[in-house]
Specification:
The chain is α+β, with helices and mostly antiparallel strands and about 450 residues long. Helix content is about 45%, strand content about 15%. It has a domain of about 100 residues: Chitinase A, domain 3, CATH 3.10.50.40. The longest helix is centred in the N-terminal third of the chain and has 27 residues. One of its GO terms (molecular function) is peptidyl-prolyl cis-trans isomerase activity.
Length: about 450
């Protein structure tokens, strides 16, 4: 698999694009938005033949047909990935977005064929089989049954794979060879990063929706509906892939690790700086459209993250027999808390647990960040031999974690010059990729049925 497929393919969701992608995507859209004044459109316009101008759910792209079934099966994939049933209004908007995505895929496949670098069925089938086994843990037959059960099909997924492989091939041939990054640029960036050691760095997800003065209100409303779905538990990655117009859409909106100044927009910088990991903000109006931001994580440049410390823990747990009343459980939990508070180190865990009728389980090499968020700050403040406050429920019983050892992480070295070179190349490739796709759309003959 090429480096482009790893970065642009939706099936490589763990990949992250370079920190500068946001600025390259928005730079193009700001340029397009600023040129809208050239049309000199008056504010008080009257729409003629409004009903006839509505886009339908099928289209013909340079002679290639996109059917309603194509749209339905792709929508089913998205709904299944999102693990939440959208409303009828959301489905309507999703269908229009899917149609736009299918049009782009068709253009990419057609362009690759026209340049005699098309993707063969064998290549598509190989990638599909790898995806089924590696990501979904299913055989070919099981994958077919799964896709059918959600209202989709192998053909729909293979079409998306073919589009992404075709686009990958086009970028490697027509874009990447013409992207150059000098050693002077890389060295300058490396020196700036070294000077910024200890400053905050953010891993941010974005959903960008472009808007013109004429579409501003409609796009704003759509962005607000997306925020509602995300707050209700929708998958940010799934929504970014299908709705975002930034080049990071292919990797679920992931900007990678960046300094806040790299957003290069005062409004976004201000709101992102106030976020805590796991929080959303938006829609934020910026030149050319609206953005929704999601703070995935936060760290200090060149500094070890204490949440990467590896712990040696003992869990002391007390189960409540079936039929235990709330009052009895509270009394037993209180006696348990009093007993474990007297433990003077991990060596006494088993003997004290025996007197309480509790069980002890030991585990080593547990990263703090892998534990529930509510426990992480507590464990960060513990010394060896100390225990967390008791936690649990009537159903699960009550337990504590006893800290028996801790290996702190080594300091992070930060990216080397080779990594920075790759990041700058990716940024410029993405900028040109956006322009390439824009040109394909502009030259296409599209009929809506």
């Amino acid at each position: 698999m090429s480096k482009f497929t790893k970065k642009f393919g939706w099936f490589a969701a763990a990949a992250a694009l370079s920190a500068g992608l946001y600025t390259s995507a928005t730079a193009q859209q700001q340029e397009e938005a600023s040129s809208s004044d050239a049309f000199n459109i008056p504010d008080n316009i009257i729409i003629l033949n409004r009903e006839d101008s509505k886009r339908k759910a099928t289209a013909t792209v340079n002679g290639s047909i996109i059917t309603g079934t194509d749209v339905d099966q792709r929508v089913a994939l998205i709904v299944a990935a999102n693990e939440a049933q959208p409303s009828a209004e959301e489905i309507k908007r999703l269908r229009l977005q899917v149609l736009r995505n299918l049009i782009d895929e068709t253009l990419q496949i057609q362009e690759a064929d026209a340049q005699e670098i098309g993707v063969s069925d064998d290549e598509v089938n190989s990638t599909y089989n790898r995806l089924a086994s590696d990501r979904f843990r299913r055989s070919d037959a099981e994958m077919t049954r799964y896709l059918s059960s959600i209202g989709s099909s192998p053909a729909s997924l293979k079409r998306q794979i073919k589009g992404e492989l075709a686009w990958d091939r086009l970028l490697r041939r027509n874009v990447a060879p013409y992207v150059n990054v000098s050693e002077e640029e890389v060295n300058e960036l490396f020196e700036r990063l070294q000077a910024s050691k200890g400053t905050a760095e953010y891993r941010i997800g974005e959903i960008y929706l472009s808007a013109t003065p004429a579409t501003r209100e409609a796009v704003n409303q759509n962005a607000r509906r997306i925020m509602e779905q995300l707050r209700a538990g929708g998958s940010f990655v799934a929504y970014a892939r299908q709705f975002s117009e930034a080049s990071t859409a292919a990797v679920g909106g992931d900007l990678g690790w960046i300094r806040i100044e790299q957003l290069q927009n005062e409004q976004l910088e201000n709101v992102a700086r106030e976020l805590q990991p796991g929080q959303l903000v938006g829609p934020v109006e910026i030149p050319g459209g609206f953005s929704i931001l999601y703070l995935i994580d936060k760290r200090q440049v060149g500094m070890a993250d204490p949440r990467d410390a590896l712990l040696s823990l003992k869990q002391i747990s007390l189960d409540f027999p079936a039929g235990t009343t709330k009052e009895d459980a509270q009394a037993r939990a209180s006696a348990f808390a009093d007993g474990v508070s007297k433990i003077r180190g991990c060596g006494e865990a088993e003997s004290v647990a025996a007197t309480l009728g509790a069980q002890v389980v030991s585990n080593d090499g547990i990263a703090i960040r892998s534990l529930p968020e509510a426990l992480q700050p507590i464990l960060l403040d513990l010394s060896v031999g100390q225990a967390t406050p008791p936690f649990g429920t009537l159903e699960d019983g009550v337990r504590v974690l006893l800290l028996c050892g801790r290996d702190d992480p080594a300091g992070a070295a930060g990216p080397d010059t080779d990594t920075l070179m790759s990041q700058l190349e990716d940024e410029r490739i993405n900028r040109r990729a956006q322009r390439y796709l824009r040109d394909l759309r502009r030259d296409a003959v599209i009929e809506y049925n």
